[in-house]
């Protein structure tokens, strides 16, 4: 439960729960109570402007973790201890505050009880303005407040920074997002959204398999090779490469000028010539292709890719098919945030060549026409990419927030009309303009792409998706992106996807699959054992750097219906965060990193354990195949080499009649073993338990004594029992139905 204590400014200090958070707070800073103990912090300027930078005060010697836009499209995390380490474009700041205040307690304030609490600072939208946080070399914490349109000005920046506090950082973020969504009314919490249909099924995306060379033949070849291996995708994303486009800056037969590919523009809402004829005669258009692959390969859902502006360079002004949407060539206007961190080649290109911007008053017609055509062709949903581009196109349209809001409202309306299952994946959409304009969209990519040819990026990817999910996971289901099953890091990525609460899909080239990896993720019916929430760093990992400090493992926690799960990942030594230099003189990272895992790494485990749980758990380590009985408060040591991981299924132990202890684990050949357990019931009078399970394979559990018998769907089954560690196993047939396991003692 979030403790309520409204932040206040007193004696030049920003106080939260009686603790000093900021000193030297200027007189123009204003605190306005929100609700439930939260507040907005703003400021007044002397003159009206479209952009203000306002000092909030000094932040020093306080552990923080922040999420910031490193490159226009994506957030990454950063940890530190003072404001000088907080980059431009920071959107979320989480502080760890101990009983001894950052800089002491003001005399007449009563200290809060407890050893530590957390302060959340969110940079949010305020009308037509967007806020970000940043630090200075003097440890001043500032907020930047901008509209993105010189004609949209103000001298009052009152509700751009939201501050709240609590004892549990995960509850704090959740409660804060709910407060904000109710107060602002511009977005919705994930609990109030409809989840897309594809999330619980294994998928395939064409991007890394073909890039823009995707074709009907390639799609069929890929689906056929999956089928031959015995694991077929149930959802397919036909990514970039299917649309009718033109590049005015590239002439046939001449070398391509680097960057001009991003200035390519859309010329029609229909498919290009590649999809209008197939040599084997199986399809002559997109509709026929989709019906063919659904009929022959068991696909449930097919999504098509498009950019929020139509294509990377927008739409072609002179296109006869698109003239009715009143497109106009506009040139992106870059903010200080766009150029102050990492510049992006795509944005540099579009700044030079321009974007064909659809009239915001016509953008619903554009989406509706395209989506209705796709829906009539058998398409079930869309992946909408390149969304943050709009932040640079607000000049003359009421500003970046206003144009983003209008486009998102049009997209939501079209989705509601044409894809009633809310089958939308948002991508390249990490700016707060998009996040806090998300009323219906329920899935969004959580980090920069999986890049199979970039060995230094693999660990950054896992760290980014887990930390970014702290914020994104309260608004959308974070999509941790595709990966390659046949790749040196496939186990690392696959294990992360299994516990990430995210969709599981790959982008394998046809014939390039590792079915051993895929069978640890995908059940025979094509479904996946998706955990309940967004995978996030454990509490003891929130303020450490799992990529560059040379000593910390990354631990990610999640919950299933009756079990918890913790993944431990060694992300050290393989890459470095952009915009950050290593603080250590040492240039080498140890071959192995050690850490400790505890059942209490799983937040809210007691809620699924039930009232009579005494705190002990059975812990199953997937890769080592070991099971341990872990008493309350105890830990397990784990040591991992570079790019190694271990997945721990944590099942609360229950005591039944006669002092017998039992705990289900799940399918022990699957990364997220516990995801296979739907429910279990103790029947004390008969000294037995019943377990409802999904999928097929070896099902395991912990028993303190050997059972006398086991039945599966009321039929006696042979089982094994290891008296040394208490591991019980029984084999489940994989016919796609739920199984009822009855264990009698």
From TrEMBL:
It comes from the Eukaryota. It comes from Salvia divinorum. Belongs to the glycosyl hydrolases 36 family. SUPFAM superfamilies: (Trans)glycosidases. This is galactinol--sucrose galactosyltransferase. Keywords: Carbohydrate metabolism, Glycosyltransferase, Transferase. Pfam families: Raffinose_syn. It catalyses: alpha-D-galactosyl-(1->3)-1D-myo-inositol + sucrose = raffinose + myo-inositol. InterPro entries: Aldolase_TIM, GH, Glycosyl_hydrolases_36. Its EC number is 2.4.1.82. One of its GO terms (molecular function) is galactinol-sucrose galactosyltransferase activity.
